């Protein structure tokens, strides 16, 4: 009898929704690399979907976690206080600009759920405005405000009431100038106010400062600033979903720093603890102080080990990780532009720091998801792990660890060049 693979064993005990992007059976990870059970090495430019921002098994993060594991694994924040929980909260609130408060959860979706609940509780208003192509998570509330794929909502309708969607800027697709695209999208919000829900009944506008699954789309600065002004005008809370964009991904601790705008509430997760489950809802003090005892909760949020790891993450980012993301990110984008000169179906390169999208389009001007799928498959064969994104699945999203060097970029570019050359037109 042949020995069953891990994928076969997993599929025997897990539902179809647990299907993986690859069939890789991974034995270990270190830095920017993974090794499978047969010893093959892969350059990982997915980082566990933007989680291991400092690379796999970063030695300092592992050390911090091990030290905490010897002291306390779980105490429950509802019952006792413990040092890493408070220290990490203090640090993140300081990074958010001071005069903030924080509540820890376990996942990005939980943080989004909490942010929505907080906004409703603090304003006593029912409405939420989100954006088309957005992705915010898979729980019921997070699914409600997600608009990147109808499959995520299928069979779960109806979801939360009083959720409305506006247009998110995508200048590459519309062909408009940043100014004209900003005006178009702002008008879509005004249309929501005019036709669907009065602004004084809207609790929050929820947005990704850079859209993730929607296509790694960077909005114009003036759009983000105008949304902030619109919220201030109508007493609406601005929520930034920084689950994927936070903790160094864009070369800043938080992506909103690129736009000169501060949110009222943020949801944080993914890179916060470099692989240990943790998330946070961060809000301005005057908003958080309205969230009274019993209005929200959870058992595992703020696990001591995860918090210890989170403190290590911030330390590493402040001691060179952020600067490296900017430096190597600029080099990566430069190399991708050179690659685009060789292959006409690479039609757009965009991104901030090491959150970079490469969009493929056919000669007829249609999204080229097939080419992206071919590239992913061939790259994996050659030892490079890539992920796609975009509503049409025609964007390669590069999410390498922020600790990568230029040599890693060169290695990835060479593999991608070889793959595209083999695929042909």
Describe this entry's structure for a reader:
49% of the residues are buried. The strands form three sheets. Strands 4-10-9-8-7-5-6 form a seven-stranded mixed sheet, sandwiched between helices. It has helices spanning 6-13, 47-50, 59-69, 83-95, 108-123, 140-144, 171-174, 178-195, 221-234, 285-288, 304-342, 369-381, 406-423; strands spanning 26-30, 33-36, 41-44, 100-105, 127-131, 163-166, 202-207, 237-241, 265-268, 279-284, 346-352, 355-360, 384-385, 387-389, 395-398. The chain is globular, with a radius of gyration of 21 Å. With 425 residues, it is of the alpha/beta class. 39% of the residues lie in helices and 17% in strands. Helix 12 crosses helix 13. The model has no long low-confidence stretch (mean pLDDT 96). The chain has 13 helices and 15 strands. It starts with 5 loop residues before the first helix and ends with a helix.
List keywords for this structure.
425 residues, alpha/beta, 7-stranded mixed sheet, 4-stranded mixed sheet, 13 helices, globular, Class-III_PLP-dep_AT, transaminase activity, Aminotrans_3_PPA_site, Aminotrans_3
Number of strands: 15
Strand order within the widest beta sheet: 4-10-9-8-7-5-6
User: How much helix is in the residues?
Assistant: 25-40%
Averaged pLDDT = 96
Element order: H for helix, E for strand: HEEEHHHEHEHEHHEHEEEHHEEHEEEH
Helix vs. strand class: alpha/beta
**Amino-to-carboxy terminus distance:** 44 Å
| Shape summary | globular
DSSP strand content: 15-25%
- Give the uncertain stretches in residue-range form: none
Output the radius of gyration.
21 Å
Number of helices: 13
Largest sheet: 7 strands, mixed
């Amino acid at each position: 009898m042949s020995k069953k693979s891990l994928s076969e064993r997993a599929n025997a005990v897990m539902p179809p929704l647990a299907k993986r992007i690859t069939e890789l059976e991974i034995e270990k990870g270190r830095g920017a690399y993974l090794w499978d059970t047969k010893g093959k090495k892969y350059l990982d430019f997915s980082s566990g979907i933007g989680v291991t921002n400092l690379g796999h098994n970063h030695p300092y993060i592992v050390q911090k976690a091990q030290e905490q594991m010897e002291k306390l694994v779980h105490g429950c924040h509802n019952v006792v206080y413990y040092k890493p929980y408070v220290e990490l909260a203090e640090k993140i609130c300081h990074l958010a600009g001071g005069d903030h408060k924080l509540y820890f959860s376990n996942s990005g979706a939980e943080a989004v759920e909490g942010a929505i609940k907080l906004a409703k509780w603090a304003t006593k208003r029912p409405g939420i405005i989100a954006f088309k192509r957005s992705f915010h998570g898979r729980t019921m509330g997070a699914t409600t405000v997600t608009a990147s794929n109808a499959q995520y909502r299928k069979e779960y309708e109806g979801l939360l009431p009083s959720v409305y969607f506006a247009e998110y800027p995508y200048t590459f697709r519309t062909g408009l100038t940043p100014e004209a695209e900003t005006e178009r999208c702002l008008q879509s919000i005004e249309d929501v106010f005019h036709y669907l829900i009065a602004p004084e009944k809207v609790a929050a506008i929820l947005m990704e400062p850079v859209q993730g699954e929607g296509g790694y789309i960077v909005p114009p600065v003036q759009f983000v600033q105008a949304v902030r002004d619109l919220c201030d005008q109508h007493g609406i809370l601005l929520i930034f979903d920084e689950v994927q964009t936070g903790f160094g991904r864009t070369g800043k601790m938080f992506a909103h720093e690129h736009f000169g705008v501060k949110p009222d509430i943020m949801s944080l997760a993914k890179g916060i603890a470099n692989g240990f489950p943790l998330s946070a809802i961060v809000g301005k003090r005057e908003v958080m102080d309205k969230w009274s005892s019993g209005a929200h909760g959870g058992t595992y949020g703020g696990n001591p080990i995860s918090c210890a790891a989170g403190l290590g993450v911030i330390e590493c980012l402040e001691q060179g990780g952020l600067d490296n993301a900017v430096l190597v990110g600029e080099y990566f984008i430069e190399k991708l532009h050179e690659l685009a000169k060789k292959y006409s179906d690479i039609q757009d390169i965009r991104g901030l720091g090491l959150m970079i999208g490469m969009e493929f389009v056919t000669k007829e001007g249609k999204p080229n998801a097939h080419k992206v799928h071919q590239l992913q498959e061939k790259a994996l064969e050659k030892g490079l792990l890539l992920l796609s994104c975009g509503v049409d699945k025609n964007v390669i999203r590069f999410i390498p660890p922020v600790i990568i060097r230029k040599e890693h970029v060169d290695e990835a570019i060479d593999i991608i060049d070889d793959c595209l050359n083999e695929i042909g037109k």
